[in-house]
Amino acid sequence: MLDIDAIYKDYAKIVFKFLISLCNDVNTAEELTQETFYRAIKSAKRYDGTCKVSTWLCQIAKHVWYQEIDHRKRKETSSLDDKIAADELNLEEKLCRAEEKMHLIKAVHILDETAKEVVLLRITGAFSFKEIGEVFNKNENWARVTFYRAKQKIMKGRLE
């Protein structure tokens, strides 16, 4: 039977250095070292002594590293698939918005000139109602009412 505590004390640095040489990352090497010894404990009964303990542990470490690489590849592929799906949704959403904007612009252009200008200043120019009133030499309340009435015409489809 193997004394895992003694093996850990004797070989942890060797396994760690071996993993550093594979992954070039201290944090990953530390995690994989722990995983290596966990798996060594699980498979200690199968160790038959035909090779050195360090060789056996480094073989386990190598397999742990390969599994980590596979995990990362699957994660990247999954992330890429998620990104592609999100991009497709974003594209669909953008197309819907573009279509909605086109309907809105068409509806706005049917309005009388004053209402059209108030709506366009408000939705495209980001003017405040006070600024719109100043443009027309009217007050803020006039701009609000004009915008509200134009919006109601657009929403109800009763364009005059």
TrEMBL record:
<dbReference type="InterPro" id="IPR014284">
    <property type="entry name" value="RNA_pol_sigma-70_dom"/>
</dbReference>
<dbReference type="InterPro" id="IPR013324">
    <property type="entry name" value="RNA_pol_sigma_r3/r4-like"/>
</dbReference>
<dbReference type="GO" id="GO:0003677">
    <property type="term" value="F:DNA binding"/>
</dbReference>
<comment type="similarity">
    <text>Belongs to the sigma-70 factor family. ECF subfamily.</text>
</comment>
<feature type="domain" description="RNA polymerase sigma-70 region 2">
    <location>
        <begin position="7"/>
        <end position="74"/>
    </location>
</feature>
<dbReference type="InterPro" id="IPR039425">
    <property type="entry name" value="RNA_pol_sigma-70-like"/>
</dbReference>
<keyword id="KW-0804">Transcription</keyword>
<dbReference type="GO" id="GO:0016987">
    <property type="term" value="F:sigma factor activity"/>
</dbReference>
<keyword id="KW-0805">Transcription regulation</keyword>
<dbReference type="InterPro" id="IPR036388">
    <property type="entry name" value="WH-like_DNA-bd_sf"/>
</dbReference>
<dbReference type="GO" id="GO:0006352">
    <property type="term" value="P:DNA-templated transcription initiation"/>
</dbReference>
<keyword id="KW-0238">DNA-binding</keyword>
<dbReference type="InterPro" id="IPR007627">
    <property type="entry name" value="RNA_pol_sigma70_r2"/>
</dbReference>
<protein>
    <submittedName>
        <fullName>Sigma-70 family RNA polymerase sigma factor</fullName>
    </submittedName>
</protein>
<keyword id="KW-0731">Sigma factor</keyword>
<dbReference type="Pfam" id="PF04542">
    <property type="entry name" value="Sigma70_r2"/>
</dbReference>
<dbReference type="InterPro" id="IPR013325">
    <property type="entry name" value="RNA_pol_sigma_r2"/>
</dbReference>
